[in-house]
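Researcher: I've been going back and forth with a colleague about how Circularly permuted ATPgrasp domain-containing protein might be arranged in three dimensions. Neither of us has a model we trust, so I'd like an independent prediction. The organism is Streptomyces gardneri, in case that matters for your notes. Sequence below.
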Amino acid sequence: MTELSRIFVDECLRGNGGLGEAVARAEFPPGFEKAWRSYLLPRPWFVGAAETEAFARDLGGLFDLLVSLPRRLFDGDMERYGAAIGIDPRLVSLLRRGGSGVPDRLGRADAYHDGTSYKLLEFNLGSEVGGLELAVFNQGLLDVPEFGAFAREHGLGHVDIGARMAAVLRERAKPALSGGAEPVVGLIEGRGGVAAYGRMMVATQEAMAAQGLDLRIGEVGDVRTRADGKLTLDGTPLDLVVRNFAAGQLLEDPAGPEVAEPFFRAHEAGRTVLFTTLESGFYGNKSALSLLTDPRWSAAFDADERALVERLLPWSRTVSGAGPAGVAEIVDLCRERREELILKPGAGYGGLDTFVGWESTEAEWRAALAVAVEHGGYVAQERVVPRAEPVYDPATGAVEDWIAVLGVFLTDDGYAGTHARANRADGGAIVGLSSNPGTRMVGVFSQP
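Model: Here is an independent structure prediction for Circularly permuted ATPgrasp domain-containing protein. You can compare it with whatever you and your colleague have in mind.
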C-alpha cells in the first residue's frame, strides 16, 4: 500500500468519522448524483504526482509510436495493417472515412500500478472513451471540511478532466464557430444509445455547463443538415459534435454506416467539426499494442522506443493475423501459460467477452482459445498483479484490500487527469462496471 493510504485509513480507524464518511457526505450536482452515487468507492484513490505525470509523458510517446505503425510496418497500407490486428475489411473502410490520416490525441490509458511502476493494460483512443465528468467527485470531496483539511495537510491536488476537455473542445470548434464566442456542442450517441447511456451523458453535460459550455445531447438520427451544410440538433446549429458512438455501432445500424455521412460531409466542409474522427479506432484497438511487443517487428524501433515499450507494456500477442502456423504456435504458447494470461477482444470494452486464464480450468481455457481463433481479433496479454490498497468502509468499520485500474487521460496538451475503477482484491480479475457488479468508481488525488 502507499503510505498515504495507510495514514488515511488509520485516521478513519481512530474515529475521524468526518473523514471516513466524507464520500457519503459529499454533495454532487444532480446529474452526477443520479449517474454515479451508487457506484462510488467510500474513499478516494491516491497516486504520486511526479510518477503519474511521467507516465503520461510516456503515453504521449507511445501514442506517436502507435500512429506510426501502418507506415513503419506495412508501408502505409491500412488494409494490411487492419488485417494484422484483426479488423474486418468493412470496418477498415469505415474507419478511414472522414479522417485526415493523423488521429486526434485524445484518450484514456487504463493501467495498473504493480507496486513498482505503471503498466498499461489498454489505450482507449477517441472521444467515446467517456469519464470526463468524474472530476466532479474530487471537487465535491474537497468541499467536505474534514477531507479538505486532510488534502491541505498532505498537499493533495488533482487535474480537472472536465476543465481540460472543455479547453480542447473550445479550441477544436474555432474553425466552425457561427453564433458567438462560445461553441454549441453536440454529444451524439448511436441509435438507441441515449437510453443506455443517457445518465452518464447528462452528467457530462452538467460538467461541461460548469465550464461554461453549451452541450446538447442526441443520437445520430436526430441530427439534421442545413442548406449551408451545418449540422443542427432540434433546430440549434452545432459547431462541434463530440462523437459518442463507435464505428461498430454504425455497422450495426439498420440504416447502415451511411447514417454518419452527414457528419463526415459537414466536417470535411468545415461547417461542423467531428471530434474525434473514426480513425482513432485503428489505434485504440488492443491488438495494435501487441504489435509493439512482438519480436517480429522489434527492428522497426530504435533503442529508446524499445525501452519505452518495455517500460509500459506487458507481453501481449494477437491470436490471429499470423497465418495458420503462426496462430497454432501462439495458441500452444497460450495453453502452456494459462495461469499467466488474459484473453481480450481487440475492440471490446468493459471487460465483456474477456477470458481470465488464472480463473479458468484447462478445459475452459481451451474453449476460450477456440473462441478467440474463431472470432479473430483477440489479444493474449500477460497478467499484471496490481498493488492492493486498504479501503475503510464507514458502514461496517471494516478494512478490506481493493485494487484499481487507473484511467489516465491524455490530450494534445498532455496529461489531463485521472480517475479509477476499483474492485475488492478478491472480487475477480475484471475491473469494469459492464461485467463486474462489484466494481466502483473513484476520483484520484495526487501527492507531491
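Researcher: What would you highlight for our discussion?
Model: I'd start with this: The first helix runs from residue 3 to 13. After that, consider the following. The chain has two domains: 1-158+282-314+384-448, 160-275.
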